[in-house]
Specification:
The chain has a 3-stranded parallel sheet with strand order 1-2-3. By secondary structure, it is mostly helical. Helices cover 43% and strands 10% of the residues. The radius of gyration is 15 Å and the shape is globular. The chain contains 5 helices and 3 strands, in the order H-H-E-H-E-H-H-E.
Length: 114
Amino acid sequence: MLCQQWGKESPLPLKQWHRRPRVFAEVAREKGWPTNLKASLIGSCTNSSYEDMTRSASIARQALAAGIKAKVPFTISPGSEQVRATIERDGLLEVFDKVGGTVLSNRRVPGPCG
């Protein structure tokens, strides 16, 4: 996972990488880190908040408006069934689906870390 691979040596907090993609790429090249993105995950091991999901959906909507869809598989892991049900209620599941994501259910099994 990127967070595990990049977290300790990162010159910027992980949440800021999306604002500085050129710096991210430069640091990766300088340190010899992998630069091919093969899969991605939106969520966390302990709990992904509704706010995190709405921000991710906003980026997904912007991508769709620009005609962009995911080129690599990505999953969305709501941190709880309550968050999953809320993003379903508010139409965010449909947004993630349209951009090419797969939302994992947390009803009976834990997310990718459990």
